[in-house]
Amino acid sequence: MNCKDYQSDFLDLLLDPGAPANSAARGHIESCAECRQEFKSLEATFALLDDWKAPEPSAYFDQKLAVRLREEQALAPAGWFERLKSRLLFNTGRQFRPAMAGALALALVVGGGTFANVSGFLRSTPPTSATVQDLQLLDKNEQALQTMDQLLQDGTADDVANPPSS
Ligand SMILES: [Zn+2]
Fold first, then answer.
1. How far is the CA of 18 from the centre of ligand 1 (A)?
2. Rounded distance from Cα 76 to ligand 1 centre (Å)
3. In this structure, are residues 115 and 75 in contact, taking their beta carbons and an 8 Å threshold?
4. Does pTM top 0.70 for this prediction?
5. Ligand 1 centroid to 24 CA: how many Å?
6. Separation of CA 8 and ligand 1 centre (Å)
């Protein structure tokens, strides 16, 4: 056996130094300075690995995880269509998406659009922006002011037509 053969046994020797099968390698280390050096560096590497510790999670990791889990559990009763929709929107498996789109299209054909509120989903308008909401609010205010004017004018007209008797 040459040095290379012995060195291939070094890992076994390191993990189980007392095993009879490793006695040859152990003996060779005693007599070969080069292999002794090789074995020591391997030993040092493993010592480093033994010292390495996985980073500790933050102190509130468990609590945060528990809160998230409770939130998800609270959301769980959502209908199957909601879940299907979220899977479609957020699923990262790209190859899965066309299949889901196909299934939706099939549901649409089979149900004639009314099946499981698919038509509502497809026709649903995007959420109104803040600007649009402001404009709608202004419009309502305008209507309220006009109504107020109308009332005031009516009141004045009534006063003129039927002056309060003194
Ligand atoms: Zn050697």
1. 19
2. 64
3. no
4. no
5. 11
6. 11
> What local confidence, expressed as pLDDT, does residue 118 receive?
47
Cα of 11 vs centre of ligand 1, distance in Å, is 15
Question: CA-CA distance, 142 to 137, in Å (whole number)?
Answer: 9
- Cα 25 to ligand 1 centre (Å): 9
Domain boundaries, the chain: 3-51, 66-116
Q: What is the mean pLDDT of residues 55-79?
A: 79
d(CA 94, CA 149): 59
Contact in structure between 18 and 9 (CB atoms under 8 Å): no
C-alpha 44 to ligand 1 mean position (Å): 18
pLDDT at position 159: 56
User: For residue 35, what pLDDT band results from cuts at 50, 70 and 90?
Assistant: very high
105-128 average pLDDT score: 54
Question: How sure is the predictor about 64, in pLDDT bands with cuts at 50, 70 and 90?
Answer: confident
d(CA 120, CA 114): 8
Distance from the alpha carbon of residue 149 to the mean position of ligand 1, in angstroms = 106
Give mean pLDDT, residues 71-95. Answer: 66
Tell me the CA–centroid distance for residue 28 and ligand 1, in Å. Answer: 6
Q: Are 117 and 85 within 8 A, CB to CB? A: no
